[in-house]
Amino acid sequence: MGRNATVVVLEDALSAIEEDGEFGKKVAHAIRNLRGTAVIDATNRRGGRMKAAVVVESHDSTHLVRVLVGNDTGVVE
């Protein structure tokens, strides 16, 4: 049918995510080019960058995948 991706969003970065007009494009790029895990930075209006999300995995939507989340990342179980 399609594909699903697991993305861990760091809540401490929500303000920077809101300010980053390119964040959606960054997430799409990271998922499409995923090799292992991918860190996604967000940039605030002052130009500061911070780790905002991590793409953990991508899989066929007909399967279930267990993912453990902690320490600002995730691991496929």
Written description of the protein model:
The chain is α+β, with helices and mostly antiparallel strands and 77 residues long. It has one domain (3-76). Helix content is 21%, strand content 43%. The protein has two helices and five strands; from the N terminus they run βααββββ. The chain has helices at 14-19, 23-32; strands at residues 3-9, 38-43, 49-60, 67-70, 73-76. Strand 2 and strand 3 form a beta hairpin. The longest helix has 10 residues, at 23-32. The radius of gyration is 13 Å and the shape is globular. The protein starts with a strand and ends with a strand.
Strand content: 35-45%
Query: Taking all residues together, what is the mean pLDDT?
Result: 93
Low-confidence stretches: none
Largest sheet: 3 strands, antiparallel
How many distinct domains? 1
**What gross morphology would you assign?**
globular
Considering DSSP H and I runs of 4 or more, what fraction of the residues is helical?
10-25%
Largest beta sheet: strand ordering: 1-3-2
Question: Gist?
Answer:
With 77 residues, the chain is an alpha+beta fold. The protein is 21% helix and 43% strand. The model has no long low-confidence stretch (mean pLDDT 93).
Question: What is the fold's blueprint, element by element?
Answer:
Blueprint: E1 3-9, H1 14-19, H2 23-32, E2 38-43, E3 49-60, E4 67-70, E5 73-76
Antiparallel strand pairs: 1-3, 2-3, 4-5
